[in-house]
Amino acid sequence: xxxxxxxxxxxxxxxxxxxxxxxxxxxxxxxxxxxxxxxxxxxxxxxxxxxxxxxxxxxxxxxxxxxxxxxxxxxxxxxxxxxxxxxxxxxxxxxxxxxxxxxxxxxxxxxxxxxxxxxxxxxxxxxxxxxxxxxxxxxxxxxxxxxxxxxxxxxxxxxxxxxxxxxxxxxxxxxxxxxxxxxxxxxxxxxxxxxxxxxxxxxxxxxxxxxxxxxxxxxxxxxxxxxxxxxxxxxxxxxxxxxxxxxxxxxxxxxxxxxxxxxxxxxxxxxxxxxxxxxxxxxxxxxxxxxxxxxxxxxxxxxxxxxxxxxxxxxxxxxxxxxxxxxxxxxxxxxxxx
Length: 338
Prior knowledge:
By secondary structure, this protein is α/β, with parallel strands linked by helices. It is 31% helix and 20% strand.
């Protein structure tokens, strides 16, 4: 099997060129075509000679592929289906909002975390995506040239595939790569502590933490990973870093009627986050099969939001997008039909 060029760093692309008997500057040209211009065929690389392209193609593949399906929501959200990680399928979602085009990116096929309210988590784990699989979600969609932001909130736990995700973040933000500002990227996690520290030490991208319940025993009933990585330890680690400047941290809180939507939970959340420069995003739960809870009422969500805001914790209710095509939070499952 040929090695993929997409997902290589600049130094690796230069080494790939040299391995084919070419000059190192050809590697820089490859980076410009793959990442700067997002081209998806050898023929488009017009400043690389045909002989050089043929030499490269004998040994390497570009590592790009077209989506195998798509669906468009009534609100303009578009979900794409890709084949990745062998014979598995993953989904990514493009969310339009005025002049913004945000890509919700998958980092794994399935997920090991097993959150009971998430369709991805309930399907189990099927494989890690490589860097080319992740970058292909950026370059393979119709809106590739119009993307303004990215959120690693699709299928999988990004910090459970962090070596690969960190490589992708380098390519997205490097001058020789996509040249995006880290401020355009948010990584979401349930709080995988060892990798979370690596992310906080090594990246300037925004962080979103899936919290969902401030009481450890209740959170454990929703999220088995709470047993390994207690949310109190996660917040304690985050407090060691500065979020008063360019980098932001937010906490995602899915609202379940009669379970985590009352004053007791709001007050516990206030105690957990007091003094931390952060935002809480309240998320409407989207019903999935064989899960007993329902979404909290608008009235309960608004009261919860107001209580946090009145205690100096910025809190908003996130708009729900793409529910009619199973593209909203917690609904991605890589579903396909041959």
